[in-house]
Amino acid sequence: MPHRELTHYAVSVVGADRPGIVAGVTEALYKLGCNIADSSCAMLAGEFAMILIVSHKKPFTKALLIEELKPVCERMAMTLSVRHLPLGEEDRKETSGEICQITVYGADQPGIVYRVTNTLATHQINIMDLQTKLAGTEQEPVYIMLLEATLPDGCEPEAVEQLLDGLKQELQVEISVRIVTPVEL
Amino acid sequence: MAVQPILKYPHPLLKKMAHRVDSLDTAIQNLVQDLLDTMAAGPGSVGVAAPQIGVGLRICVVDVSNSRHGKDNNHGLLCMVNPEIISRSGNAVMREGCMSVPDYTGDVERATEITVRFLDSQSGLEREVAASGFEAVAIQHEMDHLDGLLFLDRVISVSTGLFRRKSYR
């Protein structure tokens, strides 16, 4: 259902972590009368990264949003980026295929993320969530990637495992595929 | 009786502790029938608790026998009055959705085997059922409603615990 009376923006804020970042940014949004429709914020290494989809009743402009957020971000030495969302982009498109959780881990090496995600993309498997971490020791770094993806209709999880089997051998990493089935209770 | 509308959060009754039932009178039997009718009307629904239809009493119905996950391991229809879990073991995570919290699902950890004791409204007798797998999850989910708990109270992870609802299978 398109929200024709609302205008949406993608706002991202990144900078050195410290207490008060979320409060600072959301205070400015609150005072502007913006709603946070969807958001994900996380500490990545020493940085804190915020990605927010915000909405405001029309009329409203990107310039107004930046005018209020910019001084807040500058005060905290954070980078700011704002993008207006065209109508139709504000809602998540759900597909009907099975959901898979894929875990990949092994000795760190260049190209793990690229090789795995490229294989998935080639088969129209859509990533919905992805996180990576570098663990282990300096001598023996271990790369860990967790992702959740939707399979195209008719694609079975076993097929995904087979798809990734070649990579498992080639990169010498562990790859497991687990099906996630939501249940209505 | 009749299909009742399912209350949705933030209706306050969904967060209240439900009261014990004293006796299986006609009103209670009618309420159980309402729960059954409402469960049958919900697409893919495997259980309903009385607070979900606006009654703060410790009654819920569960039937996973027609579901993909429970069809091979179930006790059929369970009409549970004053249910209590008397033992539990094991744990597993499932992505749960709830008619009272539309649009979202969440990963919840629950016991994989439980023994539940309740007054069976169909026979009028006290009964103990040892449930496992999906049936055990469904019973725990419905019983949570009797304590004013939603799956949102049990989501296990901040970053990946809550998901936009997809179609159920």
From TrEMBL, chain A:
It comes from the Bacteria. Gene3D superfamilies: 3.30.70.260. InterPro entries: ACT-like_dom_sf, ACT_dom, UPF0237/GcvR_regulator. Residues 101-182 form the ACT domain. This is Glycine cleavage system transcriptional repressor. It comes from Trichlorobacter thiogenes.
UniProtKB/TrEMBL annotation, chain B:
The keyword Membrane does not apply. It catalyses: N-terminal N-formyl-L-methionyl-[peptide] + H2O = N-terminal L-methionyl-[peptide] + formate. InterPro entries: Peptide_deformylase, Peptide_deformylase_sf. Its cofactor is Fe(2+). Transmembrane segments: none annotated. Belongs to the polypeptide deformylase family. This is Peptide deformylase. The gene is def.
